[in-house]
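ingest -> validate -> predict -> emit
validate: passed (alphabet ok, no gaps, 97 aa)
predict: started
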Amino acid sequence: MLSREAADCAGCPEKRSAFQKWSCAHCPEFRLDSIAPETWRLLELRRLRLAHFPFAPDDLDYGSWLLLAGLEEKIEAERKKNELQMILLRKEIGHAG
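emit:
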């Protein structure tokens, strides 16, 4: 959904650099206009939930709730992966010094 499918991250030379997070955030391969309208809608709904918008269970259809949960799971998995990469990078830098 939002994992940069439009970009070719596998061949990126910055993939393992110390500046990978910044490089990905400023990647010319990734364009916001490549995000599907349905994904934008889910991101907007997620923002509302994060802002504690009072959604009732029947405000969204069942499929939308599942897609929203899937988006949240994917974002959390990416967050954990990035945290692990930073920990490993810090250890690698610590051993190099």
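The helical segments are 20-25, 37-50, 62-96.
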